Amino acid sequence: MEEAQVVGLLVRRCVGGDAAAWEEIVQRYHRRIYNVCYRFAGDSDNAQDLTQEVFIKMYRTLNTYDSGKGAFMTWVTAITRNLLVDHFRKTKGDRITDSLDSTASEHEDAQPLSERIADGGLAPDAAVQKRETREMVHLALQSLSPELREAVILRDLQDMDYREIATALRVPEGTVKSRINRGRAELARLLQRTYKQVI
Amino acid sequence: MVDETKHGIDCTEFEALLSDAMDGDGLSAARKQSFEAHRHVCAVCGPLFADAQAGREWLRSLEAVEPPAHLVHNILVATSGVVSRRTLPTRADGRTTPLGERAREWWDSYAAPVSAFVRQPRFAMSFGMIFFSFSLGLSVAGVKPKDVAKVSLRPAVVRHAYNDAQIKVVQYYDNIRFVYEIESKVRELKRANTPAEPAEQKQNPKNNTSGQPEQRQDRNYSQDYNQPVFAALREAPPAVSTTTNRRSV
Lengths: 199, 249
Fold this sequence. Notes:
Chain A has 199 residues and is mainly alpha-helical. Chain A has helices spanning 3-15, 19-41, 44-61, 72-90, 92-95, 113-120, 126-142, 146-157, 162-169, 173-198. Chain A folds into 2 domains: 1-97, Rna Polymerase Sigma Factor, Chain: A (Orthogonal Bundle), CATH 1.10.1740; 99-199, Arc Repressor Mutant, subunit A (Orthogonal Bundle), CATH 1.10.10.10. Helices cover 74% and strands 0% of the residues of chain A. In chain B, helix 1 packs across helix 2 (29-41).
């Protein structure tokens, strides 16, 4: 049985009140949704809250899902994206002061990004250096505008194709491609600029 | 971006093809050749390609993060409310879950939504405001926390305290000048509206100075006037002599 058929069956069972089917859906998609939320929101606490909100919204509107209009993952991504944008609008005031000199939220005692980059070359362990680089990229990702951020997350981290992203974001495919290019380029420039500042 | 045609494609077209070119499977051979040629000569599109490629590599270095173990449990509690054993780690030896663990699981299924609600900032703010208002009210009323511990709740003491409080309230109310003035005004108005009547001579036995004895209520009402009277006291009682005859011992 194909993935789409399996999911369609699960959705029908779930709409019929089958708790086990709903649990199966949660088990299948929670990791993916959590990752999108984590990369977009930037920290684990917000990602957990947002993931929970996504599933609450899904649970309430599951009967509105129409398999003829697109894949279930695309529908879920659209819900996730809408909640993330709402979250971004609500927390916009808090984010104005965010910069590369701020620390990652789950490691409050961590050094700012610029210091971490400076220390990167001195790290004796390659694994530690790799982890620090990932944190740095994750932090730089938060500096992108939400439109560019969501596009690169869905393409480069979630491996969604352009058509699915266009459906989820409700924009033309050309716009998706343009945002992905600009997002990637801006992220690279941001990281390069930070490197130049600290060296 | 400067819209300059080089090697058959302009910069706008280059940007449109950029994603497909980086994916490596979206362009025909001829198109790819034009794209590469443009990239090498264009001062704008060359760096754009390099940046986009570098950005993609940075992003792809990010690995998927593992969600917290309790996330599925929390989601199920917040949605269907049905929590199965799949969300909890199973024991390696296949034994059933201990009673304590089951009790905790049961408690979590009820406590988790409440705890999630309580942890909301608006709830914390409301609770804080209520606490602040309550403590402010108590301090204004002169209630001290250490006095509360000394309070006796025996019924007699409570009744006594209630009566004391009631007396104080009534005294306070009666002593208010405004109330007193209103009451005296009402009395005056009543007096003015009442027609002047002759003051009824109410005979007060204690004020009776006429010297006449009170009419006795224990007289014999069944006695008829025709019945003969065998003996009767005179109107004026005889004077009692104070002299007594003493027997000589």
